[in-house]
Design brief:
single chain; mainly alpha; about 60% helix
């Protein structure tokens, strides 16, 4: 039994969202091909725009810490 019966075929994503999804997929493939929340955070940071980009400007070592955590 499915809790949510959603038709996702008609959803349109922005260009920024599609770029983030590509980054997320690439990061997940580096570890175990499963997308975890940490991969979403890494993907949004790699896009270099928005609030997550501000984090990485202010905390330059944060990206390395996230990559290390994703490998565990």
């Amino acid at each position: 039994m499915m809790l949510v019966d959603a038709d996702l075929t008609n959803i349109k994503f922005s260009d920024r969202s599609l770029r983030i999804i590509k980054f997320v997929e690439l990061e997940a493939k580096k570890t175990n091909n499963i997308v975890y929340p940490i991969h979403l955070l890494i993907g949004t940071s790699l896009e270099r725009t928005g609030a997550c980009a501000e984090l990485f400007i202010n905390y330059p070592y944060l990206f390395d810490i996230l990559i290390e955590r994703a490998k565990k």
